[in-house]
C-alpha cells in the first residue's frame, strides 16, 4: 500500500458551535458521524447554549468533521463555529460528555 503522509498526520480540533444547537440531537448526530469517520474525542453541551467538541484523527477526517459542524443535525440552526487546532492528546473512542 502506498504511504500517504498526509493521511498519517493526526491532529486535534477543539470546536465551539453556537446557534440553536441544544435539544436538536446535535450531540448524538456528532457522535454518530464521528464514529462513522473513525474520529476520537467527545462532545458536550455548555451552560451558555453552545456545544463544545474535540475531534482527534487524521487531518482530512478531522477537517471533514469541522466542516460537518457548520450544518450539524437536521434540526440545528448553526450561527458560528470556532475551532482551535492542536496536537492530539490521545482521545480514544468518541463519547457524549454530560
Automatic annotation (TrEMBL):
Acylphosphatase-like domain ranges (all copies): 12-98
EC number from the UniProt entry: 3.6.1.7
Biased composition (Acidic residues): 79-91
Family membership: Belongs to the acylphosphatase family.
Keyword Hydrolase: yes
Enzyme class: hydrolase
InterPro entries reported for this sequence: Acylphosphatase, Acylphosphatase-like_dom, Acylphosphatase-like_dom_sf, Acylphosphatase_CS
Catalytic residues (positions): 27, 45
Signal sequence region: none
Domain of life: Archaea
GO function term, MF aspect, one: acylphosphatase activity
Stored SUPFAM superfamilies: Acylphosphatase/BLUF domain-like
Keywords for this protein: Hydrolase
The keyword Hydrolase is annotated on this UniProt entry: yes
Catalytic activity: an acyl phosphate + H2O = a carboxylate + phosphate + H(+)
Protein known as: acylphosphatase
Region ranges (Disordered): 79-98
Amino acid at each position: 500500500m502506498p504511504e500517504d503522509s498526509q493521511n498519517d498526520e493526526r491532529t486535534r480540533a477543539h470546536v465551539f458551535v453556537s446557534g440553536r444547537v441544544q435539544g436538536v440531537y446535535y450531540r448524538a448526530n456528532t457522535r454518530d458521524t464521528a464514529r462513522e469517520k473513525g474520529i476520537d474525542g467527545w462532545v458536550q453541551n455548555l451552560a451558555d447554549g453552545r456545544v463544545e467538541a474535540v475531534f482527534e484523527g487524521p487531518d482530512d477526517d478531522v477537517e471533514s468533521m469541522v466542516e460537518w459542524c457548520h450544518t450539524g443535525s437536521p434540526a440545528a440552526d448553526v450561527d458560528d463555529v470556532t475551532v482551535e487546532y492542536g496536537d492530539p492528546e490521545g482521545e480514544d473512542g468518541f463519547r457524549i460528555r454530560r
